[in-house]
Predict the 3D structure of the following.
Amino acid sequence: MAVQPYSQSIESLRAAQRGRSGLSRSVLQRYLVAYLFILPVLLLYVVFVLRPTLQTFWLAFYDWNGISVDREWVGLANFQRLLADPIFWQALQHSLIWTVVVVAFNLAVGLAAAALLAGNIRGRLLFQLGYFLPVVQASIVTAMIWRWIYAPTGVLNTGLETLGLGFLTRGWLGDFTVVLPALAIASSWMTFGLSVVILLAGMQGIDPTLYDAARVDGAGAGRMFFDITIPSLRNTITIVILLALVDAFKVFDIIWATTEGGPIRTTEVLSTYLFKEGFQQNQYGYGSAIAVALSLIILVASILNLTLRERGDD
Amino acid sequence: MTDAIPRSVRSFPSGERRPRAWWLVYIPLTILFIFAVAPLLLTWFTAFKTDQQQLVSPYGLPLPPTLDNLGEAWTVGRFSIYFKNSLIISIADVIGMVVISSLAGYAFARLRFPGQKLLLYGLLVGLTIPVAAIIIPLYLTMRDFHLLNTYSSVIIADIALAAPIFVFIMRAFFKDLPVELDDAARVDGANELQIFWQIMLPLARPGLMTVALLEFLWSWNDLLLPLVFLVSDDLRTLPVGMLFFQGRFTIDYGLMSAGVLILSLPVTLLFLIFQRDFVKGLASGALKG
């Protein structure tokens, strides 16, 4: 029996199909099926994601309370107001401080934990499970737990008293000098497990011969960590930083459930500010202008993230 | 954690010998482990403590455990209603998402049609849009459709906002399946629907599992959308219920801890059962957007 290679027979079949007409019925039918398959996603996406996104930009040019029929076109007035608004600049500053705290925590803890775990140690799965447990928790759960830790009679103050550091105790969420980093630490609790996993995956991708060569040259563990591990993880570290940056600008739940942006706006960020302007003050136009600023910042961070990711894949 | 102490000397993948000072490795890892796990565990313990026990042993085991806090949160605190609402919304989300993301993921991975690239990049933009940035017009859209204060508003918005990432996940799964499969089926005269339903979908089950688990997690934990769309207390989900609950019972840590337990136990159990899928899925999800 003559055996024709399988793929070749398929090719000849396809050629025969194509030969019958330029765009045969079966091809058109196949296009139709494909469009039907993506139709539900496309419909939802256009109506509930794309249109609202464009609408945000459009609403930012109006003065509107959200209810009345007539809205007033005010041109760039909302953006002018935004640039002159000290709360906007404060909110941006808060997001940056938040980013710095989360990045510092996630990188320091993440790199250390990943480096220690990379040695295939016993119990690695258990440690990883533990570190990842907060990642799957709701941010409102994180908020509740850390409210309890930071309470005037909470775990943190009790612990400080026990250690003889009573002078450090305070109502952590009421003290406007520490409340922002305190909440950022709570947020880090919820995200560092992800950093550990990402950094660990990065470390496992490093060529082991690099370490062998360094060892021959007499390098110690510390030397190897700073001269080989860190430089090899450059892309991974950048991704962890950008993730924290995007998270810092997206954060809403933890702040809303603990301080609602207070005390005296010391934890106000763009998302809480636009929520208040939009849904509490009914300033839909101005709220949208804040949202536009938020979108642009996240868009830039995401494009950087994706570009680096692509480069990392090569 | 004694079982975590190494008994034998193994070598690092790099060939490096295990450091003799094993405690230098295990002490920091264990401290971090306690930092990660203890806050949640202590809160769960508090849920089973009476007010008296909370004062006497705030960090000890709840012995004997009481179910009073859980009972009160469930009935007086209306967590039974919030739980039911969360469950309805999350399950509807999961079913909807599994269906539409597998259909679209399959089309983008294995079918050819005009405009394919353009539509895919269009969806890619969606990965970057933060919910907070479009929440105002999204609210107005729901109002125009008369969907405010219904389960549907949250379900539809949840699915629409998370669809891009799941389409990409499913596309990756379908792309990895061998080409010979559909060629063979086409030769046998199967139509596109049959190929998708009878051949591809069963093979993509691990991908569907990831989609289902992550979508459940995200919708179960979400605060902003149900907070904005659902006004009546009878429709509120657990996170929103919790938010208003803490306003009313702010001093009562026993009750609040019971609320935390009810909200966090289901996802924690799912995580412990399907850890691999969660870790992989969340890591790739984070890296993509």
About this structure: The CA atoms of residues 77 and 119 of chain A lie 58 Å apart. Residues 1-5 of chain A have pLDDT under 50 and may be disordered. The longest strand of chain A covers residues 62-63. Chain A is about 75% helix and 0% strand.
